[in-house]
Amino acid sequence: MQKTLKKYFFYYVGAALCFLSSTAIAMNSGTSVAHEHASEIINSLKINNTQSRKIRLSLIPFEKDKTPISIELANRFYNELLSALIEESNSKIEYVSNKDVKHIANQLSFQNDDYEKGLEVALSSIKDVDGLIIGSIFLNKDKISSSFRVTSMNGKILATTQARNLNLKITHIDVGSTYLSMTEALDAAARYIKRNAPWMKEANYEGIYYQNSGIQTQASLYFKDTIFKSLSDQYFKLVSDKRLMIYETESSKKIGRSRGLKITSNNTDSAASRNKESYSIKGKYWLHKEHLEIRILLSNKLNEKITWRGMIDYRGLPGDIELEPKYNDIDRTKDMTSQIGLELSSLHGFDPEYRIGEKLQLIIRVSRDSWVYCYYKQANGDSIQIFPNPFFYRNNREPLLLAGKSYLLPGDGMFPFDFEITKPTGVEAVKCFALSRNVTNDLPEILSGNTMSPIPKEIFKNISDIFMSIKDVSITEKTMIISVFE
Question: How many structural domains comprise the chain?
Fold first, then answer.
């Protein structure tokens, strides 16, 4: 989406994460939407009045910072859905409350790894449950929409619903009355961060993403450069004889060096040290009809968090900046989740930014011995299998990865050649599946790892369904977005 952007913006700074927490909202027909979702779920589960046994379902809580409305309002809609499910099924559905699942909502927010590690623990502890309800509330242009799915405990999808508008009416947003430029705004963010973490000496930058997509845009790069300069200026004034060290990638990047700022590698011992002085920085931004919202989160190794939020008038950004990804057909909202923990990352972090000519290295880790299959989709639409592959099979019989061990891909014996990022620029993705048994013989030949030929587009489009159709197996699916720039 291109907009003509000029000069000013509204801003709001605070510790609250949910942008509608101070918003007056009228839910005109949330109950009817909940009943529509409930009917779809019941029909998919094939619940009828003749069956004697109740279907026992539990909820996976919303992640606070993946909902564009307050978590309180999101949970209210969850309650309406549960009531509708019980009513529509004539009490053939029973809700099973689980304190371990609820604990996730209270303890974790914003980022993927902690949430999913906690989710793995919770899933391992849940007993006597037939399925898990997983909801998503998201922005769809200027509307707030919802969708749900029900998964079995082994990760298979039992039911899904269509996206439906929640008919939320935003009647007021408290954004203050001060007009600032973007630079002045992020200077304000840096001052806020300095006031709350004056002891910070190291910051590991992870990215500022478009909504919950995991995609970084040209606007993301602009926000990054601006916040880097603002932070360096603030912390230079605080400790004039020292520099705030901002780590971005495994290798040094030429981001520009301003007073008080030092860019270096994040694979040093100091960057990984568990102390109060080392923070990670990440953020997201949302596009609304008349303004852009940006959220920035800092957290240290002690799980102490600092949040900043701003509401930005579109006129406060450069005129030709790209705010919205041009094209993205990668949907990871329905990735399958089971008791198998699957961590997928890179030496540039999760959902990383890469430049043309850089070499990609993935990090894969499973919580229990699992058979793993990984595929790569390029910006031009082509897809290939990267693990297992013909080179791997020269020395290995099956794609079995051991629990608790981190595997590097490319790596000796697994993918023994460089994986260099090439043109075109755009959005790329890695999709991995971890399974409880070897399913190589259950897969189409093109997905078995015996060839490096491109995967037909129709097969890759349905790859999740292909894995989900395999019987007698638990599956966890993970998708990582890679944003490629010149």
Answer: 3
